[in-house]
Design brief:
There is one protein chain. With 72 residues, this protein is mostly helical. The chain is elongated and about 55 Å long. Helix 1 (7-33) packs antiparallel against helix 2, helix 1 packs parallel to helix 3 and helix 2 packs antiparallel against helix 3. The model has no long low-confidence stretch (mean pLDDT 85). It is built from 3 helices and no strands. The chain has helices spanning 7-33, 39-51, 53-70. 81% of the residues lie in helices and 0% in strands.
Length: 72
């Protein structure tokens, strides 16, 4: 343990990292379960979620999932 960094700091960043990872994985699973997302659209959403985990996953849940569900 590093005496210069408080233990609470390590715990907070561990929780934040776990939350971001869980949010990203949930977005990817949601994309895979959506039947209307395929081909290039899936690749673009997937790369967006991987490149910007928090913003990409939030965009998928806010916009992408609804837009893909209403697509015929």
């Amino acid at each position: 343990m590093n005496p210069l960094i408080p233990t609470a700091y390590d715990v907070v960043w561990s929780v934040v990292t776990a939350a971001v990872l869980a949010f990203t994985i949930a977005a990817i699973i949601s994309m895979m379960r959506t039947r209307h997302v395929g081909g290039l659209r899936f690749l673009v959403w997937f790369l967006l979620v991987l490149a910007a985990p928090v913003l990409g996953a939030a965009a998928w849940f806010a916009y992408g999932r609804r837009a893909e569900a209403t697509r015929p």
